[in-house]
Amino acid sequence: MAHPDFIEVYDGALDAATCKRIVQRFDASGQAQRGETGSGVNVKLKDSWDIRISGREGWGDIEQTLNMAMLAGLKSYLRKYAHAVLAPLQLQMPDPKTGELATLDAERVAALDDATLNALVFRVFRPGSINLQKYIADQGGYPYWHCELYPKADNGETLHRVVLWSVYLNEGFAEGETEFLYQERRIVPKIGSLLIAPTAFTHTHRGNMPKGGDKYIATSWVLFNRAEQLYANPQVPQVLQKGR
């Protein structure tokens, strides 16, 4: 049995027409700015043009569309890798037959109906801010090997990141893969496909230069809710009993 690498790709997370509309709106907006890393703009590390659409006027519909695609993929991811939520937290739910609290395990998570799994996701996680990114043909890329989990002096939110996700918004170019170092795996961009992977150093990755055409992606993270919210009222809904 092959060992999992915790990198999942979900084809058709967005339809091609929606992806095309996002790309067209990006190019027409005039809002793109030089892409930043955690330490700021450095085109030797990351050469891109970005629009952070979360909370930006005129982008709410696109933000919602992308987050809904992410949510569908995240539920599939949790059904396969339940310990992404079970290992950091002790989760309990009422038994549907007895009404007594029962500790969730991987089998129970995999069997949850969509509505209940939605409640669990919203109780434990929150969406990160979404970046739309354009990498210019034969020039752009993110060649620096990096991960998505790190301390930042002015923003502790980076330490709450659980998984990264990207939606590939176009094709029509060569290379431009998302390459994972230790897994020795390259994800070839396919329009509308959703990539989900862990954020820590184990999944160090880079974005290779697109050849012969520009590359567009939407990218973000799924974060834990802050502890103040997680434990403020664990009875509503009754999906989180206590932390480890």
Automatic annotation (TrEMBL):
Gene3D superfamilies linked: q2cbj1_9rhob like domain
Question: What domain of life is recorded for the organism?
Answer: Bacteria
Residues covered by the Prolyl 4-hydroxylase alpha subunit Fe(2+) 2OG dioxygenase domain: 132-222
Q: What is this protein called?
A: 2OG-Fe(II) oxygenase
